[in-house]
Specification:
- The protein has helices at residues 24-37, 81-88, 116-125, 128-136, 146-159; strands at residues 45-51, 57-68, 71-77, 91-98, 103-113, 171-185, 193-200, 203-209.
- It is α+β, with helices and mostly antiparallel strands and 211 residues long.
- It has one domain: Roll (Pnp Oxidase, Chain A).
- It has a 6-stranded antiparallel barrel.
- A hairpin with a 4-residue loop joins strand 4 and strand 5.
- Helix 4 (128-136) packs across helix 5 (146-159).
- The longest helix is centred in the N-terminal third of the chain and has 14 residues, at 24-37.
- The protein is globular, with a radius of gyration of 20 Å.
- The structure holds flavin mononucleotide.
- Flavin mononucleotide is lined by residues 42, 45, 60-63, 74-76, 80-82, 139-140.
């Protein structure tokens, strides 16, 4: 079937204001659990958009590693393109696509670096090979070939042989503090349900949006 003609009817029960928790983080975690139960692939994957150094938007997938009242946390290399962009403009948007459930959650907000303690704790929980990989990969920089990356990996493995691996100073978390979060539920005939939460002082307002 051509891309143009591909059409899926979203026969879901829908979403009404009464179904929503007043706190969007609680609502997010409820949907996240349902995505896990439905065995959605990588339910914590989110497409992260940042503002490029040249002003162009830039997007890529990262894995959310914590979602609570403080925000949405992901981990990365602090010298990477995305981190340089966030250092220059600490603003981001992110989208979770749980397509098997016909659901999307998008959020926008300001971004700050996670605390050293939080990054240390998360780094310590990673498998050893991933820890070595964090040291080895100068993320977002040009490589001559795969062998160059393998050589960096071998060098990092030798350096930390039989030792506990500390968190690289150039690796850690970023936390997106949302000021808006939208929940989207697919419905028949493209008449989807959309609810947008906006931060108003210490609370959240909720508005139904036209699909
Ligand atoms: C499913 C998936 C999960 C990913 N998770 C992460 C992640 O948590 N952290 C990360 O730095 N890159 C992650 N990546 C790789 C990024 O998409 C991206 O290639 C990398 O971070 C470099 O991006 P940048 O050059 O814009 O900084 C993931 C990619 C995919 C497809």
């Amino acid at each position: 079937m051509s891309i143009r003609d591909r059409r899926l009817q979203y026969e879901t029960a829908g979403l009404d204001i009464g179904d929503l928790h007043p706190d969007p983080i609680v609502q997010f975690n409820k949907w996240y659990e349902q995505a896990e139960e439905a065995k959605v692939a990588e339910p914590n994957a989110m497409t992260l958009s940042t503002i490029g150094l040249d002003g162009m938007p830039d997007s890529r997938i990262v894995l959310a590693r914590g979602v609570d009242a403080n925000g949405f946390i992901f981990y990365t290399n602090y010298n990477s393109a995305k981190s340089q962009q966030l250092q220059q403009k600490p603003l981001a948007s992110a989208v979770f696509a749980w397509l098997d459930l016909h659901r999307q959650v998008r959020l926008r907000g300001s971004v700050h670096a996670a605390s050293d303690q939080q990054s240390d704790e998360y780094f310590a929980s990673r498998p050893r090979e991933s820890q070595i990989g964090a040291w080895a990969s100068p993320q977002s920089t040009a490589l001559i070939d795969r062998a160059a990356l393998d050589a960096l990996m071998a060098e990092a493995s030798r350096r930390f042989e039989a030792q506990q691996i500390p968190r690289p100073p150039f690796w850690g978390g970023w936390c997106i503090v949302p000021d808006s979060i939208e929940f989207w539920q697919g419905r028949p005939n493209r008449l989807h349900d959309r609810f947008s939460y906006r931060r108003v002082a210490q609370n959240w307002s909720i508005t139904r949006l036209s699909p």
